[in-house]
Design a protein that fits this description.
With 328 residues, the chain is of the alpha/beta class. The chain has one domain (2-113, 175-326). The chain contains 16 helices and six strands. It has helices at 2-11, 31-42, 74-86, 97-109, 122-125, 128-140, 145-148, 153-160, 167-171, 177-187, 200-205, 210-220, 224-239, 243-253, 262-292, 313-319; strands at residues 51-56, 59-66, 90-93, 192-194, 297-303, 323-326. Strands 4-3-5-2-1-6 form a six-stranded mixed beta sheet, with helices on both faces. A hairpin with a 2-residue loop joins strand 1 and strand 2 (59-66). Helix 1 packs across helix 15, helix 2 packs antiparallel against helix 14 and helix 8 packs parallel to helix 12. Pfam families: TraB_PrgY_gumN. InterPro entries: TraB/PrgY/GumN_fam, YbaP-like. Residues 1-18 form the signal peptide. This is TraB family protein.
Length: 328
Amino acid sequence: MRLILAAIMMVLALPAQALCTGPDIRARLSDADRAAVASAVATMPFAQGLFYRATRDDTAVTVIGTMHIYDPRLDALADRAAPHVAASDLLLVEAGPEEEAALTHAMATDRSLIFLPDGPTLPERLDDTTWQALVSALNARGVPAVIASQMQPWYVGMMLAIPPCAMSELSAGKKGLDGMIVAQAQAADLPVQALEPWQTLFDILRADPLDQQIDQLRLALSPSDLQAEMFASMMDSYFAERIGELWEVSRVAAHLLPDVDRAAADALFTASERQLLFDRNADWITVIDAAAEDHDRLTVAVGAAHLQGIHGLLKLLAQDGWIVTRLP
Protein backbone atom coordinates (compact mmCIF):
# COMPACT_ATOMS: atom_id res chain seq x y z
CA MET A 1 0.00 0.00 0.00
CA ARG A 2 2.80 2.43 0.87
CA LEU A 3 4.40 1.76 -2.51
CA ILE A 4 1.14 2.47 -4.33
CA LEU A 5 0.47 5.55 -2.24
CA ALA A 6 4.00 6.84 -2.80
CA ALA A 7 3.60 6.51 -6.55
CA ILE A 8 0.25 8.32 -6.43
CA MET A 9 1.83 11.06 -4.37
CA MET A 10 4.99 11.35 -6.45
CA VAL A 11 3.29 11.17 -9.84
CA LEU A 12 -0.09 12.47 -8.70
CA ALA A 13 -1.61 12.37 -12.16
CA LEU A 14 -0.77 11.19 -15.63
CA PRO A 15 -1.76 12.29 -19.14
CA ALA A 16 -4.94 10.33 -19.72
CA GLN A 17 -5.47 11.17 -23.38
CA ALA A 18 -1.87 10.61 -24.39
CA LEU A 19 -0.99 7.83 -22.01
CA CYS A 20 -3.37 6.34 -19.46
CA THR A 21 -6.95 6.01 -20.57
CA GLY A 22 -9.92 4.13 -19.26
CA PRO A 23 -13.28 4.50 -17.58
CA ASP A 24 -13.57 6.65 -14.49
CA ILE A 25 -12.42 4.62 -11.47
CA ARG A 26 -15.39 5.99 -9.54
CA ALA A 27 -17.70 3.80 -11.61
CA ARG A 28 -16.18 0.83 -9.79
CA LEU A 29 -16.76 2.27 -6.33
CA SER A 30 -19.59 1.17 -4.08
CA ASP A 31 -22.31 3.64 -3.12
CA ALA A 32 -20.86 3.68 0.39
CA ASP A 33 -17.39 4.59 -0.88
CA ARG A 34 -18.72 7.34 -3.15
CA ALA A 35 -20.66 8.75 -0.20
CA ALA A 36 -17.53 8.59 1.95
CA VAL A 37 -15.58 10.58 -0.65
CA ALA A 38 -18.29 13.26 -0.86
CA SER A 39 -18.54 13.53 2.93
CA ALA A 40 -14.78 13.81 3.42
CA VAL A 41 -14.36 16.44 0.72
CA ALA A 42 -17.28 18.53 2.02
CA THR A 43 -15.51 19.18 5.33
CA MET A 44 -11.90 19.17 4.10
CA PRO A 45 -9.86 22.38 4.41
CA PHE A 46 -8.41 23.58 1.10
CA ALA A 47 -9.98 20.75 -0.89
CA GLN A 48 -9.85 22.71 -4.13
CA GLY A 49 -7.25 24.82 -5.87
CA LEU A 50 -3.64 24.61 -7.05
CA PHE A 51 -2.49 28.22 -6.49
CA TYR A 52 -2.60 29.89 -3.08
CA ARG A 53 -1.12 32.97 -1.43
CA ALA A 54 -0.03 33.01 2.23
CA THR A 55 0.82 36.34 3.85
CA ARG A 56 2.21 37.23 7.25
CA ASP A 57 3.42 40.71 8.18
CA ASP A 58 5.30 41.92 5.08
CA THR A 59 6.10 38.46 3.70
CA ALA A 60 4.16 36.69 0.94
CA VAL A 61 4.39 33.04 -0.06
CA THR A 62 2.89 31.67 -3.27
CA VAL A 63 2.07 27.97 -2.85
CA ILE A 64 1.64 25.91 -6.03
CA GLY A 65 0.37 22.31 -6.12
CA THR A 66 2.29 20.42 -8.76
CA MET A 67 2.44 17.05 -10.44
CA HIS A 68 5.75 15.37 -11.11
CA ILE A 69 5.22 13.84 -14.56
CA TYR A 70 4.80 15.76 -17.80
CA ASP A 71 1.47 16.43 -19.46
CA PRO A 72 1.00 18.94 -22.31
CA ARG A 73 -1.69 20.69 -20.29
CA LEU A 74 0.91 21.58 -17.70
CA ASP A 75 2.23 24.23 -20.09
CA ALA A 76 -0.71 26.47 -19.20
CA LEU A 77 -0.08 25.98 -15.48
CA ALA A 78 3.62 26.76 -15.98
CA ASP A 79 2.62 30.01 -17.71
CA ARG A 80 0.37 30.78 -14.76
CA ALA A 81 3.23 30.11 -12.34
CA ALA A 82 5.81 32.18 -14.23
CA PRO A 83 4.92 35.66 -12.93
CA HIS A 84 4.82 34.37 -9.34
CA VAL A 85 8.27 32.83 -9.75
CA ALA A 86 9.61 36.01 -11.38
CA ALA A 87 8.37 38.09 -8.45
CA SER A 88 10.02 35.83 -5.86
CA ASP A 89 13.44 35.98 -4.31
CA LEU A 90 13.55 32.25 -3.39
CA LEU A 91 11.97 29.07 -4.74
CA LEU A 92 11.35 26.16 -2.36
CA VAL A 93 10.74 22.71 -3.84
CA GLU A 94 10.78 19.11 -2.63
CA ALA A 95 14.05 18.46 -4.45
CA GLY A 96 16.12 20.99 -6.33
CA PRO A 97 18.92 20.50 -8.89
CA GLU A 98 21.50 19.81 -6.17
CA GLU A 99 19.33 17.12 -4.59
CA GLU A 100 18.63 15.50 -7.96
CA ALA A 101 22.36 15.42 -8.68
CA ALA A 102 23.05 13.91 -5.27
CA LEU A 103 20.42 11.24 -5.84
CA THR A 104 21.80 10.39 -9.26
CA HIS A 105 25.32 10.11 -7.83
CA ALA A 106 24.16 7.96 -4.94
CA MET A 107 22.28 5.55 -7.21
CA ALA A 108 25.36 5.24 -9.42
CA THR A 109 27.85 4.71 -6.62
CA ASP A 110 25.96 3.06 -3.75
CA ARG A 111 24.57 -0.31 -4.78
CA SER A 112 22.88 -0.80 -1.41
CA LEU A 113 20.53 2.11 -2.08
CA ILE A 114 18.24 0.08 -4.33
CA PHE A 115 19.77 -3.40 -4.57
CA LEU A 116 19.48 -6.24 -2.10
CA PRO A 117 22.42 -7.05 0.13
CA ASP A 118 24.05 -10.45 -0.18
CA GLY A 119 21.44 -13.15 0.26
CA PRO A 120 18.33 -14.49 -1.46
CA THR A 121 17.16 -12.67 -4.59
CA LEU A 122 13.52 -11.72 -5.23
CA PRO A 123 12.65 -14.95 -7.11
CA GLU A 124 14.08 -16.87 -4.15
CA ARG A 125 11.96 -14.86 -1.72
CA LEU A 126 8.71 -15.15 -3.70
CA ASP A 127 6.61 -18.13 -4.70
CA ASP A 128 6.87 -18.99 -8.39
CA THR A 129 3.37 -17.78 -9.28
CA THR A 130 4.02 -14.34 -7.80
CA TRP A 131 7.47 -14.10 -9.39
CA GLN A 132 6.11 -14.94 -12.85
CA ALA A 133 3.37 -12.33 -12.44
CA LEU A 134 6.06 -9.88 -11.42
CA VAL A 135 8.20 -10.73 -14.46
CA SER A 136 5.23 -10.12 -16.75
CA ALA A 137 4.45 -6.77 -15.12
CA LEU A 138 8.08 -5.67 -15.34
CA ASN A 139 8.33 -6.68 -19.00
CA ALA A 140 5.38 -4.42 -19.73
CA ARG A 141 7.40 -1.57 -18.23
CA GLY A 142 10.61 -2.39 -20.08
CA VAL A 143 12.42 -3.55 -16.94
CA PRO A 144 14.56 -6.71 -17.36
CA ALA A 145 13.65 -9.33 -14.78
CA VAL A 146 17.29 -10.29 -14.29
CA ILE A 147 18.03 -6.79 -12.97
CA ALA A 148 14.82 -6.49 -10.95
CA SER A 149 15.55 -9.83 -9.28
CA GLN A 150 18.38 -8.17 -7.36
CA MET A 151 16.49 -5.00 -6.42
CA GLN A 152 15.01 -4.21 -3.05
CA PRO A 153 11.26 -4.94 -2.96
CA TRP A 154 10.25 -1.34 -2.20
CA TYR A 155 11.99 -0.09 -5.36
CA VAL A 156 10.44 -2.75 -7.57
CA GLY A 157 7.08 -1.90 -6.04
CA MET A 158 7.57 1.74 -6.95
CA MET A 159 8.10 0.76 -10.57
CA LEU A 160 5.03 -1.46 -10.53
CA ALA A 161 2.90 1.32 -9.07
CA ILE A 162 3.44 3.39 -12.22
CA PRO A 163 1.27 1.96 -15.03
CA PRO A 164 2.92 0.81 -18.27
CA CYS A 165 0.97 3.52 -20.09
CA ALA A 166 2.97 6.17 -18.24
CA MET A 167 6.46 4.75 -18.57
CA SER A 168 7.37 6.30 -21.94
CA GLU A 169 7.07 9.90 -20.72
CA LEU A 170 8.85 9.04 -17.50
CA SER A 171 11.69 7.26 -19.29
CA ALA A 172 12.05 10.16 -21.72
CA GLY A 173 12.94 12.40 -18.80
CA LYS A 174 10.24 14.98 -19.46
CA LYS A 175 9.71 17.28 -16.51
CA GLY A 176 6.51 17.79 -14.59
CA LEU A 177 5.33 21.15 -13.28
CA ASP A 178 8.00 21.10 -10.56
CA GLY A 179 10.75 20.81 -13.16
CA MET A 180 9.21 23.53 -15.30
CA ILE A 181 9.11 25.92 -12.34
CA VAL A 182 12.71 25.10 -11.40
CA ALA A 183 13.74 25.86 -15.00
CA GLN A 184 11.97 29.23 -14.76
CA ALA A 185 13.88 30.00 -11.57
CA GLN A 186 17.21 29.01 -13.08
CA ALA A 187 16.57 31.16 -16.15
CA ALA A 188 15.92 34.11 -13.82
CA ASP A 189 18.93 33.35 -11.58
CA LEU A 190 16.53 32.78 -8.72
CA PRO A 191 17.91 30.68 -5.85
CA VAL A 192 16.34 27.23 -5.48
CA GLN A 193 16.26 25.51 -2.09
CA ALA A 194 15.05 22.04 -1.17
CA LEU A 195 12.53 21.54 1.60
CA GLU A 196 14.22 18.34 2.72
CA PRO A 197 17.35 16.25 2.12
CA TRP A 198 17.30 14.15 -1.06
CA GLN A 199 17.24 10.84 0.81
CA THR A 200 14.14 11.62 2.91
CA LEU A 201 11.57 9.79 0.79
CA PHE A 202 13.96 6.91 0.10
CA ASP A 203 14.57 6.44 3.81
CA ILE A 204 10.82 6.27 4.49
CA LEU A 205 10.18 3.71 1.78
CA ARG A 206 13.04 1.41 2.64
CA ALA A 207 12.57 1.57 6.41
CA ASP A 208 10.34 -1.51 6.62
CA PRO A 209 11.91 -4.95 7.11
CA LEU A 210 12.34 -6.99 3.94
CA ASP A 211 9.49 -9.36 4.76
CA GLN A 212 7.08 -6.42 5.03
CA GLN A 213 8.43 -5.00 1.78
CA ILE A 214 7.73 -8.35 0.14
CA ASP A 215 4.13 -8.25 1.37
CA GLN A 216 3.70 -4.73 -0.01
CA LEU A 217 5.25 -5.81 -3.28
CA ARG A 218 2.49 -8.39 -3.68
CA LEU A 219 -0.07 -5.61 -3.19
CA ALA A 220 1.63 -3.57 -5.91
CA LEU A 221 0.82 -6.31 -8.43
CA SER A 222 -2.61 -4.80 -9.05
CA PRO A 223 -4.38 -5.30 -12.43
CA SER A 224 -3.12 -2.96 -15.16
CA ASP A 225 -6.63 -1.83 -16.12
CA LEU A 226 -7.30 -0.82 -12.52
CA GLN A 227 -4.05 1.13 -12.40
CA ALA A 228 -4.76 2.96 -15.64
CA GLU A 229 -8.28 3.90 -14.57
CA MET A 230 -7.07 5.11 -11.19
CA PHE A 231 -4.37 7.34 -12.64
CA ALA A 232 -6.56 8.66 -15.46
CA SER A 233 -9.33 9.56 -13.01
CA MET A 234 -6.89 11.26 -10.68
CA MET A 235 -5.55 13.26 -13.60
CA ASP A 236 -9.04 14.55 -14.35
CA SER A 237 -9.39 15.68 -10.74
CA TYR A 238 -5.99 17.38 -10.78
CA PHE A 239 -6.67 19.55 -13.81
CA ALA A 240 -10.10 20.38 -12.41
CA GLU A 241 -8.20 21.47 -9.25
CA ARG A 242 -10.24 19.09 -7.08
CA ILE A 243 -7.29 17.91 -5.03
CA GLY A 244 -9.26 16.75 -2.01
CA GLU A 245 -11.45 14.61 -4.21
CA LEU A 246 -8.38 13.19 -5.92
CA TRP A 247 -6.96 12.07 -2.60
CA GLU A 248 -10.15 10.63 -1.16
CA VAL A 249 -10.90 8.69 -4.35
CA SER A 250 -7.42 7.15 -4.16
CA ARG A 251 -8.14 6.24 -0.53
CA VAL A 252 -11.31 4.25 -1.27
CA ALA A 253 -9.93 2.89 -4.55
CA ALA A 254 -7.56 0.86 -2.38
CA HIS A 255 -10.64 -1.23 -1.52
CA LEU A 256 -10.59 -2.50 -5.11
CA LEU A 257 -7.19 -4.15 -4.81
CA PRO A 258 -7.50 -7.95 -5.09
CA ASP A 259 -7.04 -10.01 -1.95
CA VAL A 260 -6.76 -6.95 0.32
CA ASP A 261 -8.98 -6.73 3.38
CA ARG A 262 -10.91 -3.46 3.48
CA ALA A 263 -9.98 -2.61 7.07
CA ALA A 264 -6.35 -3.48 6.43
CA ALA A 265 -6.31 -1.29 3.33
CA ASP A 266 -7.68 1.64 5.33
CA ALA A 267 -5.11 1.15 8.09
CA LEU A 268 -2.21 0.92 5.63
CA PHE A 269 -3.37 3.99 3.75
CA THR A 270 -3.69 6.01 6.95
CA ALA A 271 -0.25 5.01 8.20
CA SER A 272 1.39 5.71 4.85
CA GLU A 273 -0.42 9.03 4.55
CA ARG A 274 1.06 10.14 7.84
CA GLN A 275 4.61 9.15 6.92
CA LEU A 276 4.61 10.33 3.32
CA LEU A 277 2.57 13.51 3.69
CA PHE A 278 1.73 14.73 7.17
CA ASP A 279 5.09 14.31 8.89
CA ARG A 280 6.92 15.87 5.97
CA ASN A 281 4.46 18.78 5.80
CA ALA A 282 5.14 19.56 9.45
CA ASP A 283 8.88 19.54 8.82
CA TRP A 284 8.47 21.84 5.81
CA ILE A 285 6.71 24.52 7.85
CA THR A 286 9.92 24.97 9.84
CA VAL A 287 11.89 25.39 6.60
CA ILE A 288 9.39 27.89 5.19
CA ASP A 289 9.44 29.93 8.39
CA ALA A 290 13.23 30.03 8.35
CA ALA A 291 13.28 31.11 4.70
CA ALA A 292 10.71 33.81 5.42
CA GLU A 293 13.08 35.41 7.91
CA ASP A 294 15.49 36.28 5.09
CA HIS A 295 13.16 36.63 2.08
CA ASP A 296 10.07 38.75 1.48
CA ARG A 297 8.66 36.87 -1.53
CA LEU A 298 8.74 33.08 -1.65
CA THR A 299 7.32 30.52 -4.04
CA VAL A 300 6.73 27.01 -2.70
CA ALA A 301 6.05 24.35 -5.36
CA VAL A 302 5.20 20.87 -4.04
CA GLY A 303 3.08 17.90 -5.05
CA ALA A 304 -0.59 18.87 -4.89
CA ALA A 305 -1.37 16.04 -2.47
CA HIS A 306 0.53 18.00 0.18
CA LEU A 307 -1.88 20.94 0.09
CA GLN A 308 -5.22 19.52 1.18
CA GLY A 309 -6.67 18.46 4.52
CA ILE A 310 -6.31 19.23 8.20
CA HIS A 311 -2.68 18.11 8.11
CA GLY A 312 -2.01 19.70 4.73
CA LEU A 313 0.60 22.37 4.14
CA LEU A 314 -2.01 25.13 3.72
CA LYS A 315 -3.79 24.35 6.99
CA LEU A 316 -0.45 24.20 8.80
CA LEU A 317 0.50 27.59 7.39
CA ALA A 318 -2.79 29.03 8.62
CA GLN A 319 -2.17 27.58 12.07
CA ASP A 320 1.31 29.12 11.97
CA GLY A 321 -0.12 32.61 11.63
CA TRP A 322 -0.22 32.97 7.86
CA ILE A 323 -3.34 34.30 6.12
CA VAL A 324 -4.03 31.80 3.33
CA THR A 325 -6.21 32.63 0.32
CA ARG A 326 -6.80 30.85 -2.97
CA LEU A 327 -5.54 32.75 -6.02
CA PRO A 328 -8.06 33.26 -8.84
